[in-house]
Each structure stands twice: as structure tokens, then as C-alpha cells.
User: Which sequence fits this backbone?
């Protein structure tokens, strides 16, 4: 039986908060917008930071990249806290199911030798890379100007440690439920020749002053590592009797696709800002000029190591072939300011 | 034929503590291509000595997957309540529309502090040298974003029908009484990472958390505010993690080096007093702004601070050489008077605030007499009875000038001496040839420790007099504040009250 | 008053999901006193309160991880002294 409920409806005086009305008119808006627009304080800070007395507590000058209005950028994913944790609960639930499946059938132990070596010496050590990426992202969570930007950085920081924990759990499973593989992975990260260019790069990025430069530098590395290690090896894994690898890798590829959405939108917003576009494009060009080549070299060292274990995957060749388009993902956005 | 498969051998399972350490602190490594000081430039200047960051304990061992799972579940339940309340026009079942003045104070004064905590725990998540406290700080940062946004969303429904909620963020930056919480958190954020840990994690999230939050949440429960009460319950489990971080922080720092003890003691002294002064807003709220009161400020202070903290926590800290906060006796002595003195300021100045106030009626005055049997009738009741007489004559008194503010806590200088409730408590300090005024020994002591900090403050009253707040007249200032008709002044006769009376009028006939 | 006598307390959401947990705490901590408020149960005991996973599982009828305590807790007074796969202990240390 269907019925229509009658209400004595009290008319609303306004549909949303005043700052939203000022921007978008008096209309109902999403929880993302109510929870993001104009939340960060703007003025009348009472004291200068003792840790950086030439800055205010919230200050555009923490980066060379500026926006006239921070809220011209919004997260294409519309993640606020609730939708973010719900999305990631799903991702981790899927990963947990994958890992249980692999553990119950000892599928990681049954991987062909080359794939086990790949996991052990290259992929699991990337848990430390993710940890470094987290340190970089969380700097944006504090220092980015505007809630719309910092919120994405906050979630990215949590994502990176989530990724690091997923890789660690793979390592534990690979080690038969022990810490052995994690110890091996750490030694590889600290001492392994194939990982030193990457570790060095990450450490230099971590100490940069400009949170946006460091975030973009890491993104340049991600843009090479993720297609190489996760998506790029997928087909070879399936053909090479290493389905377990494909099952693990899919979660990281999915995450990277999600991450691209907000980073690409943010770079586009910087590059087209009404007042700062020119300066921003120059700054973006500087980021590319400084870090793109370094990222390529670091990942090439990884690719060579992959080749040692899985020659049929021809990873170094794949890297070289796609590197041109990968090397400067924002070139078109910044009007070819970087070659 | 063997039917054994490789998985028949029982799989080893790592103990929780070890697994958690592998998934958090073990991710860290000693940098060798950059200096440690380059990577962590802010951990030495406060004079705190750390010998072993690995000494940090993690009692709440939440990995990212578990965090997302539990938090998603909590939010699902909370938002279901919010949606139900909105659908059922639940605001009509509040005890009274005047109750919402307490929630206006909450979103204007407290929600921005949640956001500040979100941003600055991210600072700790970047700049503390130990991976274990860094991860704990990251989780807290994300939690505080949850609190900010769930509060914005909870109160969004009230914003549609009632005044005073619409411009909370702008008002926090500009309006005079909101400089009290704003300056409190700015003080913490501008301090170094270890002082921030003690000021917020310990003093705010542990020492005074019940005193600051339980009155709002219980007030919600007693006054029919289901959404706020549900938010409160839901946030509290996050608060358990935060309290734990606070207690762990202070113990870790005290255990690392004896030289840390006097530094920590000074911070405990300072931050107890600064947070206590902010709690004066809560005192006024719970004694005066709840149509159905929960308990008096005095009772709350005795339960949540004197019993639970002074008698519960500080004996634990005594082991490390930490004594109860300096000036705590002043706070105890003030408990008879604090709420009344602060509400009198609100009542006198709500013409320029984003909430309304009213004079307590006789039933309310009788309740206050019961709660403060030794002092209310002598010191505070006569003032309210005077206001009652003025209003019976058709007028309403608002103070036509501007109050003097304390340079540190930024409350109006309106407290009285411990041993003489008839005498205004007023202190002076000299710095670089200028005189600065504070409200109490506690605030003066804070000023004199760091005068170069407190002279930077953006004091709203001074700024109005300088002409930096929209213009020379009160209407100019109100416009600059973003205050709209109905937000300010007297509750009786306000748009909110008129609407409420019309809706609940028992004399309305059927169908009207 | 020394640590063994000073009261510790745990506030839990009083809900259907937490019934087994509350019963387990009451059974394993004979000195615990209980106060009921709307939607909330306050458990208090001198010195310490212990939560045993096995106790909870017995009453729940299925597996329970100590991590799930996160969903039930509202607040506590004391110190989380231990939290591992099998047990949670809240007490004062000194």
C-alpha cells in the first residue's frame, strides 16, 4: 500500500550557510560543499608561529603555487570525511579479501621464483617509499592554503600509509606470517643498489620547503612507478602463472587512478588561475625541470632490477617507450613551458 | 597419495603489538642522504630532550583498514540519525528555541577549534621525529576533520530555521567574544610541537575535555537536541583515543629526561589556566543558556576537574615530579562566581553578539540559588532582579560602551578577587614601555613569561576603537561581523522566539 | 589513595551490540558498579577494569576482536595499561 505523507512544512529561512549563499545563491548544497567551503580561517591571527616567525598560521606563502580563490579548486571525488572513509573501507575490505584468499591457498609462496623475487626485493620495499610519500602529503595537510586543497592532502597522507600497510601485509604473508620479508625489504630499501636512487630522491623531496613542490615531485615518481610496477606487469603476471601478483596489484592501480583525479584537477586549476596562471606555470615548469629527470633515473634503476627477475616483461623498454608522455604529464596544461 | 597442501601447516599469526609496530614504526628509516635536522627542524628549539623515540607506547592499535571500517560504521549510524531528525522536523521538539543559543556558541566557538586541531595535528604528523607518535597524530588529525564536518552537518539543519548559525567561520575570525577560543588555539598552534602536545593533547583533550564537552552534549540530551547528542556520543569514542594520546604524550616526555620536567610543569601550569579561562564560556552556557539545565558549573567543575583530575590523574603524575597546576586554587575559589560574571557580560553585550540572551525568570533564579546556596543570593541574584524590574517597565539594558579585555585570555575584565567578591580582579604588566592589562594572577603569570607573544594579539575591542572593524558606528561593526537581524540582542521578542511561540501556542485552534 | 584503590571507569554505549561486552565486563570484574543513563552505561571499579576477549566471545556466540572495543567505548577515566589480542586493561599506573 502506497501513501503520501502530508507534512505541515515549516518554511526554511535559508537553505544553507551564508558563505555558500554568497558563492552559489540560496540553494541546498552537498555536504561536501558545506563541510569544505571557507572553513579555514583567513584573518586576524593572534600570534606568529614561533617555529616560523616570518609566516602567519595560515599563509599562502608556504608555496610558490597560488590561487586567487582556493575554492575554485574542489575535489572531483567530492571526498569529505564520511565519504572518504566509506570509500577506503571498501578498498581495504577488497584488499583484505584478496589477501585472505592468497594466504589460505599459500599462493604467494607458490609464485614462480622471478615473481617472488620481484615482490621481495622491489615491491615490498616500496612500503618505505609510501611512508616517505606520506610525510610529504601530510605537509600539505598543514601548510596548503584553503580547506579544499588541504583536505585532499590529508586524505592522500592517510592513503599513503594505507598503501604502506597493504604492502607490509603482503610482505608478512609472503614470509609465511612472519616478519622475515619485512626485514629483507628494509635492508633492500636502505642498502640495495637498485633502490638507492629512489631513496635518495625521496629524502631530498622530503626536506623541501614548498609543500606543493614536494607533492608534485612525488607525483612525478608515482606517475612512473605505479604504471610500471602495478598495471604494467599485470598482463605478464596473468600470462606467466602469477595470478596472485595481479590480484594484489589491482588494488594499487585502483588507488592510483583515484589519486590522479584530484592532482590533475589541482594542477589544471593552478595553471588557469585568473591572477596567478603565469607565475604558476613557471613554477610548475620549474618543478618539472628539477624533478622529472631525477624521477626517471630513479625508476629506471627499479626497472633494470625488474628486468633481472622478469626479463620477459621488458620493463626498462616499456619505461623508455612511455616515458615521453609520462615525463611531463602537465606539459599541455602549462603551455609547453617544460619540454 | 598425499592430500596435504602447502596451506595445511598452521599459519603463523603475529601478536597484535608486533604486527602493529611492523605496520607503523617499522616503516620509518634513518635518512642518510639528508641530515636528520633538515628533515625535522623544529624538535630542538623548545629545550625538550628525547633520547629514544621508540619509547612511545601505542595503547590504541588501529591500522588504517580497521580505522576506516570502524569510522565508516560510526558515521553511517550518525548520519542516519541526522537524516531522521531533519525529515521529522525534529527541531520542533526541542525544549525551547532559546536552547539553540548554546549551539550557536558551539558552532561559532568550538567547531573552528576542531578544525584548528585537524590542521595542527597534521603539523605533528609531519614534524615529530618518532614514527609512532607521528601516526597517532595523523589519525587524530583525520578524526578532528570528522568532528569539524559532522558538527557543520549536524547544525546545518538548525541553520535553515534559526538565526545566528549562518556565518560561523567568518564570525570566529572577527567577533569579539570569539577571540577567546581563537586566541587560545592560535597560542597553541604558534607554539612548538612539544608545547602543542601538552597544551592540546594533554590539557585540552585530557585534563579539561569532560568539563568542555560533557555540558554541551548532556545539555543536548536534556533539551531534546538528538542530533547534537548523537554527535557527542559518536565523537566520544574518538576522544578516547585522543585522551590516550595526551596521557601518553606527557608521560613519554617526562620519562625521556629529567630536564624536561620543569618545562612540562610550566606548560601544565600555563595551559590549565588558558583552557580554564576558555571554559568560562561553557560555565555561562550551562548555568544560564539551557532551558532544562543538566548540572551547575560548580558541580561539573567539582566532578570533572576536582574529583577526576586532581584526585585521580595528578596523583599518577606525582610519580614524575609533576604537581597540580599553579593557580588551580584560584579556579576552585572562582567556581561560585565564574558563570554569573561571564553571563552578565553576555547579557549586557548580546546586542553585539551572534546569539540572544534573556534575564532568568524566578524559577531559574531559584535553581541558581539552590546550586550556589552560599553566594548566589548575596552576590548575583540582586543584579538579575534589577534587570527583571527594568524589563517589567518595558526596557532592556544593554551596555553602550565596550569592555576592557584581558591581554591574554581576551575575556572582559570582569572577575573578582579570590578573597573579596566585591573587588574587580585587575593586573598590570609593563613591556617595552607600554602597560598591558590582565584579568587575574593566572593570566598575568602567562603574560610575563612570554610578553613578546601576547603583545601581538588582535584584541577585538582595540581593533574596533582603531576603526579596523568596518567603521565608527555599532551598525558598521555589526555589518562587518556579518550579524543579521534576529541574530543579536534580547531573546524575548526575537524572530526565533516569535516563531517558536507561534508554533507552540496552545491557544491556536484546530487547523490554524 | 594508591593506584589500587582509586576508581577507574569506562563509559559505553548501552546498545544491543554491546550487551555481551557489558555482561562480560560485569562478570570478570566483581567489584564493578554500574550506572545507567539514557543510551549510556557507566562502569566503575576500584583500581582496574579488565576486558577479556574470550569472555566476550562466550556471550556473543561468535568471534570478537579486541579492536572492536573502539566502536563501543564512549569515554574512560584511568590509563589504558594493556591492549593486545586477548585483553584490555584500564587502570592507574602509580
Assistant:
Amino acid at each position: 500500500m502506497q501513501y503520501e505523507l502530508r507534512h505541515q512544512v515549516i518554511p526554511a529561512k535559508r537553505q544553507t550557510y551564508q558563505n555558500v549563499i554568497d558563492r552559489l545563491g540560496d540553494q541546498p548544497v552537498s555536504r561536501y560543499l558545506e563541510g569544505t567551503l571557507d572553513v579555514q580561517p583567513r584573518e586576524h591571527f593572534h600570534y606568529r608561529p614561533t617555529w616560523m616567525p616570518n609566516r602567519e598560521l595560515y599563509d599562502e606563502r608556504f608555496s610558490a603555487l597560488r590561487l586567487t580563490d582556493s575554492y575554485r579548486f574542489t575535489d572531483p571525488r567530492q571526498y569529505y570525511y564520511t565519504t572518504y572513509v566509506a570509500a577506503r573501507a571498501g578498498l581495504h575490505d577488497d584488499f583484505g579479501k584478496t589477501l585472505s584468499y592468497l594466504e589460505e591457498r599459500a599462493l604467494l609462496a607458490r609464485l614462480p621464483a622471478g615473481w617472488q623475487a620481484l615482490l621481495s626485493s622491489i615491491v615490498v620495499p616500496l612500503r618505505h617509499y609510501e611512508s616517505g610519500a606520506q610525510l610529504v602529503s601530510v605537509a600539505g595537510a598543514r601548510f596548503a592554503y584553503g580547506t579544499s586543497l588541504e583536505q585532499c592532502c590529508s586524505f592522500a597522507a592517510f592513503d599513503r600509509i594505507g598503501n604502506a600497510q597493504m604492502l607490509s601485509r603482503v610482505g608478512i604473508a609472503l614470509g609465511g606470517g612472519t616478519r622475515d620479508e619485512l626485514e629483507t625489504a628494509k635492508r633492500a630499501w636502505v642498502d640495495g643498489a637498485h633502490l638507492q636512487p629512489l631513496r635518495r630522491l625521496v629524502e631530498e623531496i622530503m626536506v623541501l620547503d614548498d609543500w606543493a613542490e614536494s607533492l608534485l615531485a612525488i607525483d612525478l615518481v608515482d606517475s612512473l612507478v605505479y604504471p610500471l610496477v602495478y598495471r604494467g606487469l599485470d598482463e605478464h603476471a596473468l600470462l606467466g602463472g602469477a595470478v596472485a601478483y595481479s590480484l594484489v596489484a589491482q588494488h594499487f592501480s585502483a588507488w592510483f587512478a583515484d589519486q590522479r583525479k584530484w592532482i590533475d584537477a589541482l594542477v589544471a586549476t593552478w595553471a588557469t588561475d585568473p591572477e596567478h596562471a603565469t607565475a604558476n606555470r613557471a613554477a610548475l615548469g620549474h618543478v618539472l625541470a628539477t624533478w622529472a629527470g631525477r624521477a626517471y633515473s630513479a625508476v629506471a634503476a627499479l626497472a633494470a632490477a625488474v628486468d633481472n627477475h622478469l626479463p620477459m616483461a621488458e620493463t626498462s623498454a616499456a619505461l623508455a617507450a612511455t616515458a615521453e608522455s609520462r615525463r611531463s604529464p602537465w606539459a599541455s596544461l602549462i603551455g609547453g613551458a617544460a619540454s | 597419495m598425499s592430500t596435504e597442501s602447502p596451506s595445511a601447516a598452521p599459519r603463523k599469526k603475529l601478536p597484535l603489538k608486533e604486527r602493529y609496530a611492523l605496520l607503523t614504526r617499522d616503516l620509518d628509516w634513518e635518512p642518510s642522504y639528508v641530515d636528520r635536522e633538515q628533515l625535522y627542524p623544529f624538535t630542538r628549539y623548545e629545550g625538550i630532550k628525547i633520547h629514544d623515540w621508540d619509547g612511545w607506547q601505542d595503547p590504541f592499535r588501529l591500522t588504517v583498514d580497521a580505522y576506516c571500517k570502524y569510522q565508516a560504521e560510526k558515521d553511517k549510524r550518525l548520519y542516519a540519525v541526522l537524516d531522521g531528525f531533519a525529515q521529522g522536523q525534529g527541531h520542533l521538539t526541542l525544549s525551547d528555541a532559546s536552547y539553540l543559543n548554546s549551539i550557536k556558541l558551539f558552532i561559532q566557538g568550538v567547531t573552528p577549534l576542531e578544525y584548528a586541531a585537524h590542521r595542527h595535528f597534521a603539523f605533528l604528523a609531519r614534524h615529530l621525529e618518532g614514527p609512532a607518535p607521528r601516526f597517532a597524530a595523523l589519525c587524530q588529525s583525520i578524526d578532528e576533520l570528522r568532528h569539524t564536518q559532522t558538527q557543520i552537518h549536524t547544525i546545518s539543519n538548525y541553520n535553515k530555521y534559526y538565526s545566528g548559525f549562518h556565518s560561523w567561520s567568518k564570525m570566529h575570525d572577527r567577533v569579539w567574544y570569539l577571540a577567546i577560543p581563537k586566541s587560545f588555539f592560535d597560542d597553541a598552534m604558534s607554539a612548538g610541537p612539544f608545547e602543542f602536545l601538552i597544551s592540546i593533547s594533554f590539557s585540552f583533550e585530557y585534563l579539561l575535555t569532560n568539563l568542555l564537552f560533557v555540558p554541551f552534549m548532556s545539555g543536548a540530551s536534556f533539551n531534546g537536541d538528538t542530533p547534537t547528542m548523537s554527535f557527542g556520543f559518536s565523537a566520544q569514542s574518538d576522544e578516547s583515543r585522543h585522551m590516550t594520546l595526551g596521557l601518553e604524550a606527557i608521560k613519554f616526555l617526562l620519562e625521556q629526561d629529567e630536564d624536561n620536567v620543569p618545562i612540562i610543569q610550566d606548560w601544565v601550569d600555563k595551559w590549565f589556566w588558558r583552557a580554564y579561562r576558555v571554559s568560562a564560556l561553557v560555565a555561562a552556557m550551562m548555568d544560564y543558556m539551557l532551558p532544562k539545565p543538566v548540572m551547575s558549573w560548580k558541580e561539573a567543575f567539582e566532578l570533572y576537574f576536582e574529583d577526576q583530575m586532581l584526585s585521580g590523574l595528578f596523583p599518577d603524575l606525582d610519580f614524575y615530579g609533576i604537581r597540580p597546576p599553579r593557580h588551580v586554587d584560584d579556579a576552585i575559589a572562582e567556581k561560585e562566581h565564574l558563570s554569573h560574571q561571564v553571563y552578565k557580560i553576555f547579557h549586557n553585550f548580546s546586542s553585539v553578539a551572534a546569539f540572544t540572551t534573556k534575564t532568568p525568570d524566578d524559577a531559574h533564579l531559584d535553581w541558581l540559588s539552590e546550586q550556589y546556596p552560599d553566594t548566589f543570593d548575596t552576590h548575583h541574584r540582586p543584579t538579575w532582579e534589577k534587570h527583571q524590574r527594568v524589563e517589567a517597565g518595558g526596557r532592556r539594558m544593554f551596555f553602550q560602551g565596550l569592555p576592557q579585555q584581558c591581554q591574554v585570555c581576551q575575556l572582559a575584565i570582569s572577575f573578582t578577587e579570590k578573597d573579596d567578591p566585591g573587588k574587580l580582579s585587575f593586573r598590570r604588566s609593563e613591556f617595552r614601555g607600554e602597560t598591558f592589562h590582565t584579568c587575574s594572577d593566572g593570566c598575568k603569570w602567562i603574560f610575563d613569561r612570554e610578553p613578546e607573544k601576547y603583545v601581538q594579539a588582535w584584541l577585538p575591542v582595540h581593533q574596533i576603537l582603531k576603526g579596523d572593524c568596518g567603521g565608527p558606528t555599532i551598525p558598521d561593526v555589526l555589518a562587518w561581523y556579518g550579524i543579521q537581524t534576529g541574530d543579536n540582542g534580547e531573546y524575548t521578542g526575537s524572530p526565533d522566539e516569535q516563531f517558536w511561540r507561534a508554533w507552540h501556542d496552545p491557544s491556536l485552534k484546530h487547523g490554524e | 589513595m594508591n593506584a589500587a584503590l582509586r576508581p577507574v571507569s569506562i563509559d559505553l554505549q548501552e546498545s544491543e551490540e554491546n550487551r555481551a561486552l557489558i555482561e562480560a565486563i560485569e562478570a570478570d570484574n566483581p567489584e564493578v558498579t554500574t550506572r545507567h543513563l539514557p543510551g549510556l552505561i557507566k562502569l566503575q571499579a576500584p583500581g582496574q577494569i579488565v576486558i577479556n576477549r574470550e569472555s566476550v566471545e562466550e556471550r556473543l556466540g561468535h568471534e570478537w576482536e579486541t579492536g572492536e572495543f573502539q566502536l563501543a567505548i564512549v569515554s574512560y577515566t584511568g590509563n589504558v595499561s594493556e591492549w593486545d589480542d586477548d585483553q584490555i586493561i584500564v587502570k592507574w599506573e602509580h
User: Anything to note?
Assistant: Residues 78-327 of chain A form a domain with the Ribonucleotide Reductase, subunit A fold (CATH 1.10.620.20). The first helix of chain A runs from residue 18 to 24. Residues 224 and 322 of chain A are 9 Å apart (CA to CA).
